[in-house]
Amino acid sequence: MVEEFVGGDLRQSVAAVRFDWGPTGAEMLNDKDGCLVVVDVLSFTTAVTVAVGRGMAVLPYRLSDPGAEAFAAAHGAELAVRRRDTSQDRPWSLSPVALATAPFTPRLVLPSPNGAAIAAAANGVVVAACLRNAAAAAAWVLRSGYGTRKRPIAVIAAGERWPDGSLRPALEDGLGAGAVLHHLLLAGCELSAEAAAMATTYKASVDVGGAVRASASALELTATSFSSDVDLAIESDVDAHVPVLTAGAFTSG
Asked: pTM, whole model, 2 decimals?
């Protein structure tokens, strides 16, 4: 018999900085007085960082939900499509490389099965972080007064999905989350055991970019001719933009 735990222990409430995986982890750790940092390296939060860096407002949308066209129209936004479905009329997709070169649009709905779903469902302050802006994201949340037990930081590695819909912890998201947690640890924050372990994993990785490039998710992108997205995503701390979810859209914090 497995007991059901619903208390604060699973929420890591004894620490100011916490870590978990996927939508359920985000739901458990979400705190209305805290900050949720979502990490989806390949590719939602990397794509959001690139788009926001160009001045676009990005509206997250759960990929599996119907009504994306109507949602975009209601919010006066363009709708991004799947990587292979881009066209002259719809040049925006989840590809960070495509978003770096696509025509500018003020508002963009960006559907995603993982990172966007977590961001769209969260309450309170949400930040999009990746390897490209890990240091900047950590600095922003601390500068904004988060990182205490009363105003905790929850770093969520989005992960991927197995065909049956269950969570597949993804190496690239663990390392991206670890990068943010490493910077928070250096700043003197109190990390939960889970958060400290991910920070240590990141610090112990001699070649983070190489590890991500060799991950299952990256190999899948490479096999489908999107290796350039991997190349862009593994660049560490090259972007000072921090996407913050405000009124339903990510803009630069």
From this structure: 0.95
